[in-house]
Amino acid sequence: xxxxxxxxxxxxxxxxxxxxxxGFNVLTGETGAGKSIIVEGIGMxxxxxxxxxxxxxxxxxxxxxxxxxxxxxxxxxxxxxxxGIDIDPSNYLLISREIHTNGRNVSRVNGRTxxxxxxxxxxxxxxxxxxxxxxxxxxxxxxxxxxxDTFGGTELKSLLDNxxxxxxxxxxxxxxxxxxxxxxxxxxREIDLLKYQIDEIHSADLLKYDEDEITKEYNKIxxxxxxxxxxxxxxxxxxxxxxxxxxxxxxxxxxxSNMNDIKIYDNTLEEYNNxxxxxxxxxxxLYRNIMDYIESLDxxxxxxxxxxxxxxxxxxxxxxxxxxxxxxxxYRDTIENRYDILMNNEEEIKKAKIRIRSMENDLTxxxxxxxxxxxxxxxxxxxxxxxxxxxxxxxxxxxxxxxxKTEYFTERGWDRIxxxxxxxKGEDLKPLSKIISGGEMSRxxxxxxxILADYDNIPCLIFDEIDTGISGRTAxxxxxxxxxxxxxxxxxxxxxxxxxxxxxxxxxxxxxxxVKDKTSTIVRKLEDNERIDELSRLLGGVDLxxxxxxxxxxxxxxxxxxxxxx
Length: 566
What we know:
Blueprint (H helix, E strand, L loop, with lengths): L1 E9 L2 E7 L4 E6 L5 H12 L14 E9 L4 H9 L9 E9 L4 E5 L2 E3 L1 H8 L3 E4 L3 H6 L2 H9 L3 H27 L3 H20 L7 H12 L1 H16 L8 H15 L4 H30 L4 H21 L3 H19 L1 H47 L6 E13 L2 E10 L7 E2 L6 H19 L3 E5 L7 H14 L4 E5 L3 H4 L4 E10 L2 E8 L2 H13 L5 H19 L2
Parallel strand pairs: 3-13, 3-14, 8-12, 12-13
Antiparallel strand pairs: 1-2, 1-4, 4-5, 5-6, 6-7, 9-10, 10-11, 14-15
């Protein structure tokens, strides 16, 4: 349930705090005072798309915050754990939204930043908002099957999962069959192209890791002259004597000779001498190795041409089939598989058709079971809805769930479901969309909400002006029905009707005040004597006469008796 609501800088709200209670909470107030804005604020907290135009004029951001208490936290806590969100040991949940004028908005749950998808997954288990737009959702036939499915349990869910998986597999197989069922000319063209590409790649005799070795060898052979020239200079420096030039080896040997003359005077010099002798030996080995390398250098023009052609082939294949040799080989494997399929086209088509028939047979079985289960649920829904509507002063109502069949399978089966209703004796059953009366539609929606409340286990229900188009005795009955829902759920109701407001456990009034050309919405929790004044206003308008006050007082006392008798 919603324990506390805090809203700041939102539409015409400066700062607002509401502490809701268990049971039946009602909000009343003049038209335009901001009742629906509060519901919209709750919707934002629950994960509706943020509208930056609702940030209060002159402010940079709106802050909306809701504190929830989880009576049965197991399901929500499981979702919180999956998102790595801290769980409050006292079973409270804090949700906040920041909406900025620059379009940025931030959502947090227990202090952890979350995405809207994450937020909606959490809040879908907390609150169900019934706004006036939901009348339209009930008129949409596409939603009727979803409503029936809501009453199904694990058996229906399992059937739906099987239908969806099998249907998705069927679509994939049909797509594959379509790809196979190309005309002969197009098939022959594709076979020729694939064969050419396969042969081209095969003839290159590519190895996965030979490209670096080829490149290195090519770089060596193509730069042999430069290599030979540089190595020639090096051997001259190391070992060749010349005019006015002493080689590196002879210079070091001279150092060794000098060291031999003096090492008898100090043991440390013996160590230096050893190092010099080591360097001399290493240089002589290096000199001989380089000379051998120079003698082995040979410009093999034929090999160079072969390497150039190899590199050109690899680069050409890369441009056509992939950025690396590995990519080219993967592409070859793919087109070889496609080539085999096309070469065995008729056999593959036959196999695909067999698989499709098998999937369609499986889907037929699943859909038949699904229809049977839905019809069983529909009979139950018909009985429950009819009873609820009769309780709501629609004595002659007949409500039916009509089934028809789609032309082909869908991911939800093959059922097409539509709600039909007759509200008066002698009238034929008609689609809900043919109902003109707003009062009838409000009661039908309330009937669904009433029975769904026992199935979906949502702890809090919000009704935004569900009393549209009703009055008198019907309004009293609607109020009593909402009161019944509040026995097991928290209910927050926006209403204009005194019959409904009088039944509330907690009554808030919403006022709009203007100070220095600035309009703000404020909310107050009413005491009993204040409730009498507010009920009088709902009954008689601005002028509060003794008669309307007496009537309001009687309504309040009758409501208290009704509550105490439960």
